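JOB MANIFEST
job_type = single_chain_structure
chain_count = 1
residues = 186
[input]
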Amino acid sequence: MSQHKREKENRENGATRRQSDASSQKDIWSLALKAKKSDVSDDTVETTLMVIGNCSSGKSSLIHRLQNKDDSPAPTTALEYRFARSTRGTVKDVAHIWELAGGTNLTDLIDIPVNESNIHLATFVILIDLGDPSGALPVLEHFLNKIQTHTKKILDGLESRGSKRPKGLKALALKKYGSEHPDTSK
């Protein structure tokens, strides 16, 4: 066999070997896809979103964007409920969206939508109007204090009745944010 034929045969055998090696190995994208598919749940997810902030801070506009609406939002009165749906295959997820109007005047109304049955699924969004920079920090502190007081009251009530949910939520927060986070003692 001539040298030229041997080199050609070696190249072809090497290419075949590389192809079979490549097909038996997985690339990073197929591994990521496989991991993502294993994380996907067929369970419906329901969540509660509480949007609060001072007057004219953009709460209604944000909610309209979440709902993919193009029209101008109407002024909010007191406490308003909306919802948004998202579909993952055949599963429909629902977000219960509550908007609190009136700035700091009506913050006691957050007791209505956020309660013991949904505290573990609740997310608070605070919007601050930076048109008045000197008033931004007091407004933010007011909302943060109200949220902290309300959630503490709910979790203490659950804990006093023997629920494991408060400890589970604290453990999840520690795992997610670490023990060095400044809010771990709260």
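[summary]
The first helix runs from residue 3 to 24.
The beta strands are 46-53, 79-88, 91-100, 122-127.
exit_status = 0
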